[in-house]
Amino acid sequence: MAILSRLRDRFYSDPRFQRWAAAFPLTRGISRRNAAAIFDLTAGFVYSRVLEACLRLELLEALQRESQTAERLAPTIGLSTEACERLLVAAAGIELVERRGSRFGLGRLGAMVLGNPGLKSMVLHHRLFHRDLGDPVA
Hints:
The chain has 138 residues and is mainly alpha-helical. The chain has helices at 2-13, 15-23, 28-56, 59-65, 70-77, 81-93, 108-114, 117-132; strands spanning 97-100, 103-106.
């Protein structure tokens, strides 16, 4: 069995095999699912950091009161307009906020986060966990 596992590992890690699997109709779906899973592993950390920033800055609460432009919201949450715009765009990408013309409002997932105070506490507590994992090898 170990020989088969090594052979499988060699195929999966070969860029030529990966290109072939992505192009071949019978393996294309598997290849896409695997690529999506790898992307999720990478993006998950970024998503959690965007959520944490929104919660620490109380951005979602500010948008729950009323939709706002980045320029108007920035001083309220203590960011430059440019940094606020980047955070809003990132948060919109994961549905914590949503664009409403030139303004941003609370998004579907952002509203759900605000409706669950325990979730906010858990995410903010993870800040300590992330600090501890600053060097994942250590």
